[in-house]
Design brief:
There is one protein chain. By secondary structure, this protein is mainly α. The protein has 6 helices and 3 strands, in the order βααββαααα. Strands 1-3-2 form a 3-stranded antiparallel sheet. A hairpin with a 2-residue loop joins strand 2 and strand 3.
């Protein structure tokens, strides 16, 4: 079995050693030993890091990703969870497409000023409502500039 020290894993994965240590603290990866002060990993860590990257790209938290592995460290994906995340992504895509279409409309709008464009005003209202919902949902969020 080929082994890699933390520097080699960092170089091959593109992740800083601090991230690898953090992933270890979170239980996402495990070294197989040490060579002096350097952590040693087996080659399967590269596949695990690729799975973590895929999960992060899909919007999963590190806690959710950690939950995708069983007690022995084998991948054990909750398929309904994947479907829920796919549905979330569909909703996000639809919001982004609507925003894109609105921006294109405003860019081509024949009104002399953007604030006279009903579509632009609707976009501003939607953005303001969304921001207010986020602020209300997170009591620790900032209330304004500063």
């Amino acid at each position: 079995m080929q082994e890699l020290d933390i520097g080699q894993v960092s170089q091959q994965s593109g992740l800083p050693a601090s991230t690898l240590r953090y992933y270890e603290e979170r239980g996402l990866i495990q070294p197989v030993g040490r060579n002096g002060l350097r952590r040693i990993y087996d080659m399967t860590v590269m596949q695990r890091l690729a799975l973590i990257a895929l999960g992060r790209t899909a919007g999963f938290s590190l806690q959710e990703i950690a939950g995708m592995f069983d007690a022995q460290g084998k991948l054990s994906v909750d398929r309904p969870q994947l479907l829920r995340k796919a549905d979330d992504l569909d909703r996000h895509i639809m919001r982004l497409q609507a925003l894109r279409d609105g921006l294109r409309h405003v860019a081509r709008c024949r009104q002399p000023h953007h604030l006279q464009c009903p579509t632009f005003k609707r976009l501003m209202n939607v953005a303001a409502r969304r921001q207010e919902r986020q602020r209300t949902a997170d009591p620790n969020s900032r209330k304004g500039p500063g």
